[in-house]
Amino acid sequence: MSTTPRHHVVILPVKPPAIGKSRLTGLPDDVRRRLAGAFALDTARAALMTPGVTAVLAVTDDYRFASQLRELGCEVIPDGTTTDLNVVLVQAAAEAVRRWEGAWPVVLCADLPTLRSEELADVLDALPPDSPGFVRDSSGTGTTVYGAPVGLFAPYFGPGSAGAHVAAGAQEVVVPAPTVRHDVDDVEALNVARELGLGPHTSAIDLD
Q1: What GO annotations for molecular function exist for this entry (predicted)?
Q2: Band of the pLDDT at 1, cuts 50, 70, 90?
Q3: Most exposed of 89, 126, 128, 167 (fewest Cβ within 10 Å)?
Q4: 208 belongs to a structural domain
């Protein structure tokens, strides 16, 4: 548990809703697009309300959706010229520290529609003080949170990211935080999310 107060900037990578959540099969395209956007908005909303979070820096090339994120209270920057997510995240972390001196950059996946601020606060407080840390997703193979001091910030998002983070020396954070771990990629995960309790943007979408 960290004993040194620190302020976190949450980096939220957001795919354009039009192409996001392609694995939500069986749902109409318009519902899938609305869900992808709602997931990101609910994730951002919870992060903005989390103690210890100074700002949420969303990274997206969807200028229309960027305006919704700004209305919510996020800062927004474009992806840049690379398609490599991890390179984008390193660039975003550097920008976060440039804008908010002394900030701790923390990547948060944008598909956590059940996210509760108090659980995210517990995770942030449990991140190691001087090395990278991460949270394994509910499937056990992926990552929903990655944080590190900017000089050590080297995420490995992609297939099998949890194992990649362990191999790179990141410390796994294990605290009771089911809503931080439950990312939604398919309909089965969406059904579990409904049981956990959806955020206001996602719950406003009629799924029945």
Answers
A1: GTP binding; phospholactate guanylyltransferase activity
A2: very low
A3: 167
A4: no
Q: Nearest Cα to 206, choosing from 24, 64, 28, 66?
A: 28
207 φ, ψ (degrees, to nearest 5): -105, 5
**Count of structural domains within the chain:** 1
Tell me the longest C-alpha to C-alpha distance in the chain: 48
Q: Which domain holds residue 59?
A: 8-203
Q: Is pLDDT above 70 for 81?
A: no
Contacts of 51 (CB under 8 A, 6+ apart): 117, 121
Specify the CATH number for the domain of residue 199: 3.90.550.10
Asked if residue 3 belongs to a domain, the reply is: no
pLDDT tens profile 91-108: 999 999 999 999 999 999
* Residue 2 counted as domain residue: no
Cα distance between residue 45 and residue 121, in whole Å: 14
pTM over 0.90, yes/no: yes
